[in-house]
Amino acid sequence: MAKQFKVVVMGIGNRGSVYANVSLEFPEKLKIVGIVDPDPVRTELMRKRYNVPKENCFIKVEDFVARDKFADAVFNCTMDHLHIKTSIPVLEKGYDLLLEKPFAINEAEVHELSAVAKKCGRKVVICHVLRYTDFYSSIKKVVDSGEIGDIISIETCEHINYHHLAVSFVRGKWRSEKLCFAPMILAKSCHDMDILLWMMNKTKPKYISSFGDDFQFGKERKPKGAGLRCMADCPYVDECRFSAKANYLSATRWGHYVWKCIEGKENVTIEDKEESLKTFNPYGKCVWDFERDGNVDHQTVIIKFENGATGSFNMIGGSVKSERNIHIVGTLGEIKGTFEDSKYVIRRIAPFTSNGYVEELVDVKDLGDDKIGANGGHGGGDKIIVHDFIDYVQGDKEPSFRCTTLEDSKISHLTVFKAEEARKSEKVVKIDC
Ligand SMILES: NC(=O)c1ccc[n+]([C@@H]2O[C@H](COP(=O)([O-])OP(=O)(O)OC[C@H]3O[C@@H](n4cnc5c(N)ncnc54)[C@H](O)[C@@H]3O)[C@@H](O)[C@H]2O)c1
């Protein structure tokens, strides 16, 4: 049996703990041996959870890399704009890296990290967790088998429901580019761009155009008479779809974001939570009062590939239900499915049948390929990626077919940056990648 894999987690917040939790489920496979995070309250909570020695907890990456190498790899789960500056010292120290998406916030950073990883000879895997789900990985296998022929066109769509949109992209840390450095299409949908380009199997994108807008938010759209805080002074508190009372107290959604401001406080009561929403908690503020700095809530991207195929991606924030759809049309057949349903259909051209086609329904639950992903976030992808990364680094093997190496992810990131350039300039932009 392979030896236990030792990891230092850099940024032990929401995502850091999602990946670190694999060590609790599979202690023989993974052990968290260090933490780098400037937040003392969070570090102490997580240090106890994963039984990390105090001397292996660091406030800064510089202090961590000053120590001799004591782990097999690092999980970098810091925020988007910190990825490059925290990853470079770690690669230079000789650690392999599992790095959160988006791994870079502009083109220069993409090339900088790629150059350092090459120079240091380190493995870098980007957390495009959707690739690891049975849904997308089995679709990829069908595409690669040649069953549907050459792809003529591919459509993908991500619907982000109204409460997810509000918590992350209106009230939360991705509400403005000035604050988080990543537009919504990068922060939320670089996964979808990765899936789209992955299915195209290294056929390069050549031209891109994009449109998007902020349709729902901004001070000018605030309902007449609405207050500053839902639970303090707003007459719409019991009817508004973005009501903090409805979403965070009644329905207890998105706790890891909403209660960050009272994290570490002992014996938190519902009254403490209510009081925070009425006074200092940013998630208690009216959604129409935030500075948006040009952020959009929906965006469409159209791509022409070098071989003449086309692709489109639609990001729609504010939907009733979150949902990802994919429809790939090939010269011999097509695949159409919805990620959340865990089902897709494969249709094959069959000119001698009455319909002109035959259809097969694939229920992904029946495939049962990946038991290790059971009950994990992103359809199991959050857990499977950790196993896949360990096997790749530890086994000294080639990356698996679904592994998003840095070089793979470079293309999707560059495409997203060009989509933003196209949206902002309202022009068709050429992509060189
Ligand atoms: N793969 C996915 O599906 C997915 C989903 C959500 C978020 N993300 C990405 O994961 C990353 C982390 O998001 P999150 O919601 O977990 O954030 P978070 O705020 O919960 O956690 C980030 C942590 O980094 C720490 N930190 C800040 N500065 C640091 C530094 N210099 N060195 C080390 N640690 C530092 C913070 O104290 C915090 O604990 C982001 O890049 C985000 O876009 C990925």
Q: How would you describe the overall organization of this protein?
A:
With 433 residues, the chain is α/β, with parallel strands linked by helices. It has three domains: 118 residues, Rossmann fold, CATH 3.40.50; 190 residues, Dihydrodipicolinate Reductase, domain 2, CATH 3.30.360; 70 residues, no CATH class. Helix content is 36%, strand content 22%. The strands form two sheets. A nine-stranded mixed β-sheet has the order 14-13-12-11-7-10-9-8-15. The chain has a six-stranded parallel β-sheet with strand order 3-2-1-4-5-6, sandwiched between helices. Helix 5 runs parallel beside helix 6, helix 6 packs antiparallel against helix 18 and helix 11 crosses helix 18. The mean pLDDT is 95. The protein binds nicotinamide-adenine-dinucleotide. The site of nicotinamide-adenine-dinucleotide has 25 residues, from helix 1.
| Helicity, as a percent range | 25-40%
CATH superfamily of the largest domain: Dihydrodipicolinate Reductase, domain 2
- The domain tally reads 3
Mean pLDDT: 95
Kindly provide the name of the CATH class of the largest domain. Answer: Alpha Beta
Q: Helical segment tally?
A: 18
**Measured distance between first and last alpha carbons:** 41 Å
Rg, rounded, reads: 22 Å
Major sheet: size, sense and barrel closure? 9 strands, mixed
Q: Quick one: overall form?
A: globular
Strand order in space, largest sheet: 14-13-12-11-7-10-9-8-15
The residue ranges in which pLDDT falls below 50 over 5 or more consecutive positions are none
Number of strand segments: 15
Q: Estimate the strand proportion.
A: 15-25%
**Which CATH architecture of the largest domain?**
2-Layer Sandwich
CATH topology of the largest domain: Dihydrodipicolinate Reductase, domain 2
Ligand roster: nicotinamide-adenine-dinucleotide
